[in-house]
Automatic annotation (TrEMBL):
The keyword Translocase applies. GO terms for molecular function: ATP binding. SUPFAM superfamilies: MOP-like, P-loop containing nucleoside triphosphate hydrolases. Residues 2-233 form the ABC transporter domain. InterPro entries: AAA+_ATPase, ABC_transporter-like_ATP-bd, ABC_transporter-like_CS, Mo/tungstate-bd_C_term_dom, ModC_ABC_ATP-bd, Molybdenum_import_ModC, Mop_domain, P-loop_NTPase. Residues 291-357 form the Mop domain. It comes from the Bacteria. Keywords: ATP-binding, Cell inner membrane, Cell membrane, Membrane, Molybdenum, Nucleotide-binding, Translocase, Transport. The keyword Lyase does not apply. Pfam families: ABC_tran, TOBE. This is Molybdenum ABC transporter ATP-binding protein. PROSITE patterns: ABC_TRANSPORTER_1 (PS00211), ABC_TRANSPORTER_2 (PS50893), MOP (PS51866).
Amino acid sequence: MTLSVDLRHRFKGFELDARFEAPKGITVLFGRSGSGKTTIVNAVAGLLRPDAGRVAADDLVLFDTARSLWLPPHRRRIGYIFQEGRLFPHLSVRQNLRYGAWFSPKRVTPAEVDRVVEMLGIGGLLERRPGALSGGEKQRVAIGRALLSSPRMILADEPLAALDEARKSEILPYFERLRDEAEIPILFVSHSAAEVARLATTVVVLEGGRVTRQGPAVEVLADPAVTPLGARAAGAVLSARVARHHEDGLTELDAGGTALFIPRLEAAPGTPVRVRIAAHEVILSRQRPEGLSALNIISGEVQEIRAGEGPGMLVSLDTKAGRVLARITRRSAKALQLAPGTPCHAVMKTVAVAPEDIGGQGRDVSK
């Protein structure tokens, strides 16, 4: 199923004019606060009636202002996951899940409930009430409730924003599994580059109510022009496979034939992964450096240089491992005599790759 979105709406001081398509997997609406992300999600859900536009899930039209067609929210069969779980506090986890199943157009079998419970790891929580759950546990239950309503699609409006880093790390693998196992589109609102890199199948970049870039996550995040949150958010995503684990606590990845060392990853050899490399963690050298503590040295060629407003520049390298971004100063770029086509080496410390920057690759991320 593919979700097609074409929206135009005007608030005081803000105008939304956005169109894109969201296929199966997670399509992340990415941009600064106030760029129109939540407005889009609420329009798709039917919580906002836009001035003009059309939204359709394959052949099912949710609304079309040109035809005066409007499907009420309760008939759209959409699962909505908010920043907070919004569970019923007087009901147990089991009862909250049954409430989701009550909205399903078909009878939800015990086997289907068991599958969702197993996928989300909430079997030990079923008799608890929301007040006895952590933030991450509440969000997992909220995901389960949404899934058991047999939705045509899922909307998630910054579902990790209210969680601390430990809880985010706890719940990110469940969104990865949802991305890989659910056969429906998922619209996921975020302004975190790390979340986008780890979860997104497709990225839709929004600035000032307009779509400025859209496409596969690997391509969009490696584009130096995509910096809606500033230069420090810039980075590239490399697709790799676990090659082997070493006794000193490192995991070696194979990224397009290039060895990449990261802190130990609990995944079997051959497992596909994606790794976000932040641009500010990369240094460049014209010659292959020796005598460094940094283990990751990737050879490539300068593809593009983009100047920022201050003293910094973003340099894009084409390498066998994929597109790599480096954030350096203008002075360094001049000293290295960098220009498109210049051979160069990207240098990265192993410990600069944080656990939240490593995730399952999922499907179709490189297409």
